# Entry
Amino acid sequence: MKLIVGLGNPGENYKMTRHNVGFIYVDEYLKENGFTSRDYKKKFKGETAEINKLGKKALFLKPLTFMNLSGESIIEAVNFYKLDPASDLFVIYDDMDLELGRVKIRKNGRPGGHNGIKSIINHIGPEFVRIKCGIGRPNGRIDVVNYVLGKLSDEEKEVLKENRDRVNSLIDDIINGKDADQLMAAYNQK
# Structure
């Protein structure tokens, strides 16, 4: 089983913010595969949905611990299913160091200032696959915290929508067993 995690913050105040790109892409993928919000189950301090596609299983998890405590939710799922984070855990999240809409996959590394990733590393270590989704950096005098917690503009929503098929294809490849190296070769944009 693969564990696919979308990072974000729960609640209406955070819906459609830049920091919730992980939640957005997980919701979009599940919606495309016939799931609704009523199909989510509360488990592992988060919302989960299990999918069985072409005989392969994947668990989707949206931690409800708030971003900075994401690792608390993820470690519960990893331990319950006895997963190897290096090969079975895939985390989708926002990255300010990538331009809006760009996707980059890495096998490991540092948190790069992302508190959700820092929490995951603190709970399970640095070996897990990261799917970074670019949100770009704020222009001018906008504070970084206000930027990531700010609502997506219509233009930004359109870029994410245009990228949805690419991310959905990436998730399909994860479920079908492609490893991090294969995913990086196929999806990392030069």
Remarks:
- Helices lie at 21-32, 70-81, 85-88, 115-124, 144-148, 154-175, 180-187.
- The first strand starts at residue 2 and ends at 6.
- The first helix runs from residue 21 to 32.
- The mean pLDDT is 93.
